[in-house]
Amino acid sequence: MGTWDEAMGEALALAAEASAGHDVPVGAVLVGPDGAILGRGRNRREADGDPTAHAEVLALRAAAQALGRWRLDNCTLVVTLEPCLMCAGALLAARVPRLVIGAWDDKAGATGSQWDVVRDARIGSKVEVIAGVRGDECATVLHEFFEARR
User: How far apart are CA 88 and CA 124, in angstroms?
Assistant: First the structure.
């Protein structure tokens, strides 16, 4: 995919589904080397009562199941919000070499803001991080969700 706008659009649609289910509106898609979407995920912590049901983890699981393997090398994870520590670890464990982020997470982000786990010199693999794709749109979705709950 030359531009990541289209994939981020898919992730934003998933984020809207999460919001409708009273989950924090985060969506993620895992894109294969040919540009096809291999896995989709949206936050489902509230829906499933599962603390690990983050959009990124669910997208990684769906892609691994579709491919029949845990290694997701040559793929790209596209997510509306910067991943947390758990999701950054899952990204590394799956050997995903590229991450595309919409909005930064200044409170709990682990791929460049609070921490940079995916590019830590103590870890062998390095993940390319492309940030700010439809960033204002992604940030607005989150801002509106939390404003409505205050």
Answer: 14
